[in-house]
Amino acid sequence: MVKYKSDLNKVFGAMADPTRRAIVTELWRSERSMTELARPFNVSLQAVMKHVSVLEKSGLVIRRKKGRTVYCKLDPRPLRAANGWISHYEKFWNVQLDNLGRYLTKSKDNKKHGK
Amino acid sequence: MENNTLIIKKTINAPIEKVFMAWTEKDAIEAWYGPEGMTTTVEVLDLKIGGAYRFAMKAPDGVHVVSGVFKEINSPKRVSFSWHWEGSTEDETTLVVVDLVPNDDKTTELTITHSGFKKMTGKMQSLESHKMGWTSSFNKLAKI
User: Fold this and answer.
1) Is some CB atom of chain A closer than 8 A to the CB atom of B114?
2) Which site in A5, A99, A107, B76 is 20 to 30 Å from A60, CA atoms measured?
């Protein structure tokens, strides 16, 4: 459960960035080299490598080296776990509201004797 | 229900004024905001229409900063604010509406309406031309 939550946080962090979401969508179409990935986003190769490295840590992207070219492939499994962006927010808000409920119950308990 | 809108409802065991305060006061927000394992710092909170907010959520893998402006403040029934994650090259801004309805003097029905997921700006439009909204593509991904 703890592991699931930390994985979810990683996916959550990785997918919080629109460029990374765009990269994921690009990779959903097919495997791409780093250079191919950088092109449509009009960002430097270095910037794309940074994004890919975050995605790799979240388990969403797998890197493969062929000769001198680095190819990136999508691994949708963490997304399936997070079940997409909206569902991800659904989890985020549900966790938030659980926290809120706990917080308000706690502050009520603290004041129980005051009233 | 609209495809790109997320609606979440929950009954909170607290009176409506308390719930509203939890969404609008610095100390309260810092006490409950952010997923488990993250600590939240309220860096900016200017509670008025058009006023900005900025919350930094510290996680083991870095700091996630969410910010936006207040769109509607109707104490204690509704607070609405734009939402975007900072530190990204192109920001996608969504809208969060928090509606509160009292059940009785002890419990409150809370509804979060989070919308605008499809909105894309600048370079993101090149992707829109692929006719793949985030939702649909991720729904597809989820089914792989």
Assistant:
1) yes
2) A99
Q: Could you report the predicted ipTM of this complex, rounded to two decimals?
A: 0.74
A12 assigned to some structural domain: yes
- Which residues in chain A have Cβ-Cβ distances shorter than 8 Å to B138? 79, 84-86
Summarised one tens digit per residue, pLDDT across range B3-45 is: 467 888 899 999 999 999 999 999 999 999 886 677 899 999 9
Indicate the pLDDT class of residue A30, thresholds 50, 70 and 90. confident
pTM of the model: 0.59
Domain ranges of chain B: 6-119
Number of structural domains, chain A?
1
Residue A111 belongs to some domain of the structure: no
The verdict on B12 touching A (C-beta cutoff 8 Å) is yes
Residue closest to A9 by CA, chosen among A95, A73, A69:
A95
- Confirm or reject contact between A114 and chain B (CB < 8 A): no
Q: Is A7 exposed, middle or buried (0-12, 13-18, 19+ CB in 10 A)?
A: middle
Tell me how many degrees the CA angle B63-B50-B134 measures, rounded to the nearest 5: 55
Identify the residue with better confidence: B83 or B20: B20
**Comparing C-alpha atoms, which of B132, B3, B124 is closest to residue A29?**
B132
Tell me which chain B residues have a C-beta less than 8 angstroms from the C-beta of A85. 117, 134-135, 138
Whether domain B6-119 has CATH 3.30.530.20: the reply is yes
CATH number for the domain including A80? 1.10.10.10
